[in-house]
Each structure stands twice: as C-alpha cells, then as structure tokens.
Amino acid sequence: MKRVNFLIGVLGAAVIALSVLVARIYLKEDNTEKTVVSNIAVSGQSTAEDILTPQFHKVNYSPAATDNNFVKAAERTVNTVVHIRTEIVRKGNSYYDFFGPLLEQLYGGRIEVPDNVSVGYGSGVVLSPDGYIVTNNHVVDGASKIEVTFNDKHKREAVVIGKDPSTDLALIKVEAEGLEYLTFGNSDDVHVGEWVLAVGNPFNLTSTVTAGIVSAKARNINILGDGSTIESFIQTDAAINPGNSGGALVDIDGNLIGINAAIASRTGSYEGYSFAIPSNIVRKVVEDFLQYGSLQRAYIGVAVAEITQELAEEENLDVLSGVYVMNVEDGSGAQEAGLKKGDVILSVNDITVDSHPQLVGVIGQYRPGDKVSLKVKRGKNTEIVSVVLKNKFGTEEMTKASESFYNKELGVTVQPVPDYLKAELGVNYGLKIVDVKDSVFKMRGVDENFIILSVNNMKVSNAEDLDKALKLSKNGKTRVEGVNIDGSWRTTFEFYR
To answer: Is 356 a catalytic residue?
Structure first.
C-alpha cells in the first residue's frame, strides 16, 4: 500500500517583486507519491452589531437541489464575496540586515533599505453593511496593504481588526455603507451529502461559483501547526482553487456555513478534496474580535483518543463511539467536574463527538466561563456531567485587548502587542506604535508598523514597564530596540532626551 505524505503550505497567486508567480510550500517527501494539503491563498439597514446578534439560520437539508436553488444561492452570495489583494513589504537583503544598525549609528538616522514587495490574492466574505469582512489569516498575514475589490468593481483599502493563526481566520474592515452581506447558517446542522456552493476568486477570476456536496465533517488535516490549533473542517468536493481562500461555502439557501481554507492535491490545484472552516467557529471568532479584541479560547482540560476496536478490547470498553479520556489536567474544568481517565465522552451539548477534531470543533464555539453538558459513559453507566470551561491559564476569565496610551517623553501612542503578533514574532512582550507625533521616532522614520521591544535593555509590555524603563536612561541617553510588525527589520538606536 502506498504511503501518502502531506505537503503543507500556502497555495495561490503570490507575485514576488510584482512579477513572479510563487507558491510558499514546505515539502516532505519519500520515494512514493506526493500530496499537497495547502492553504488556498494568494487568493436592510443594520450595522456590525448584527454580527453579535445570536441569530442562526437553520440549514434545511434537501436530498436534491434544483437549478433554481443554485441560482438563488448564487445570486444571494456573489455580491457578498470580495477579491482581496495584499502587498507584503520585506526589507533589504543580508547586507542591510547585518550592517543596517551600524550604518544608522554612523549616519545618525534610519537607513533606507530597498524593498522587496510580494503581492498576494485571496477572497473574503462581507458580514455587515458597514464593511466588516472575514477571510483567512494566511490571506492577510504580514500584509502592509490590503485592497478589497467588490463584485461591482469598486475598491476599498482595508485594515485588520483581528487575526488568529490557530483558526486561520482574520477580520478586516473597509469604510463603507449599505453593503450586501451574508448571514450565518448553523454548521452543526449541516449533513454529509448536502449540496453546497463555493464562491470566491480562483486564479484571480472574480465571482466564481462552483457546486458540490458535503463529503465529510470534522476533518483534521494537520495544516495549521501544533496541537493548540482548532481543526475541524467541513470537507467538500466543490471545486476550489488558488485564490478561493477566505471565500464562502454556502448552503442552497445562500447561508454561510463555512470559510474556504484549504485543498488536498498532488498538483497544487483542485483534485476533489476541499476544506472549509465551519461557520459556527467563524462566528465565534469574529464575535471575539469585535467584543474583546482577541480570541477567547476555552478548554475542557482532557487528552482524548479516538476509540478503535483495539483500544476497546485493551480497555474493556463496550462502545466504539465517543472519545476515550486518556488524561485529565490538574485544576481543569474537567477535573473539577469529576471526569476521570477511562471515561468515554459521547457528546457535548447533545452534539455527538467521535474524534478529537469533533471535540475541538464543538468546544471551539465556547468561551472561558461557559458551561457545557457532557454525556459520559463510565463503565456500564452513562451520566450527564456539567463542565465549566477555562482558559489556557486555568481561570474562567476573558481578556480584553488593552487600550492604547500616549507617552509624552517618546512622543508616541502605543498599545500592548496583540496575541496574534506575539505568536508571529515569537515574543511575549512589546508595545506596538499606534501613532507618532513630532519626536525622535518620526525623525528616524519609525511609523505604525514598528514594535518597541525594549527600552534601556528592559522589556516593555505596558505603561508601567515603559515608565520604569525610561527612568533607566543615563545622562539623558535612551536606547530603544524594536522590530517591524512583519519581523523583517530589527533595529536598535539611541537618542538623547
């Protein structure tokens, strides 16, 4: 039997220096055949409050769809899916990376470094008439400029509201009014075999609609990285290609049931296996961005294994459904609720869970402090257990993105670095510049794309840290270390106050 290896990467129309078509791919191969599992990128009156209104449109299962059904769903969707073009500016080369800080000190100012510009493409879905748009994180990740083109060809520049690598979702916004937008369907109600439409911009062909069925649910294809990610994809055979990333997967009534994110392919193009992030997870992440400024991740606090015939025989289980509890974390909601090693979790809030991806997908819809009801089999008995979910720190608290503040001595407005940027830069501290007044920062050409990591060799994360660090200045000399938000340019400079 042939062993299939998966190749993980970003697949799509990316132009390096505005001219070269590329695919960012990380290859694992043996002497058999190669398979790609790729992010597909690079490709009424109301307000955004509608997004936060808990209204779900029940998915109506239909074993067959008529042409008229497809037409209505397409008409409802096509004007709500946008084309996204991004520019990623990467500074310099090895010479400037190595000698840049030295040249700055010699010449007393920031040295202009030649730019390398990558251009990428993807799709997005309008969620509100005032311009909130959801897309994939990998579509806008690291972008210095985001341009959105609507189906009527008008364009708007967008800003990032929030990004989350663990779900591969991002929320961006354009300044607009009266936009057509999609409403959420309930992805938990989606049936395998149900007709769906995928709408996006493959190969830069705008407003493309393809049809297929739901092939499977709760797929984990290990594309987003480590075990802290939420992978519980809807699998479909609707044709999806480079540029579809961030586009809509809708039911035959035109309700949003997923955000297209990945394909599995040997060639890099569609071969019948496409994957979308379920709309219930999308909705929750978007609400987190709008209400709290960052993702609010909840955990039960158990390690589980899928039940196989071998495991059932080894552990003397009389069921092959559910997930087997291998370990319960100390201090977790599961431990406090009395869960034990050897328990079998059959469902969460009446939603059946037969695999780790299913469990993660259901819990991913909740926040710390939420209570969920588990149906648990322990030995011969089945009982209902109520678990209060916690965050990764073991508390029920939710965290709000910190507000910005102005520092008069430096002449900059800053805010603590968002979690998604910390993850990208590999740091757990720093202050992101929000605005630069007439100051040494402005003289050095430092702008809103810069993050202050330390002042006078002291790491800074908040106003108190910054005040303490500035007091360490000697003879009026202050030393600042920082990095661009895309991690491409790191520098240290000194100045007198």
So the answer is: no
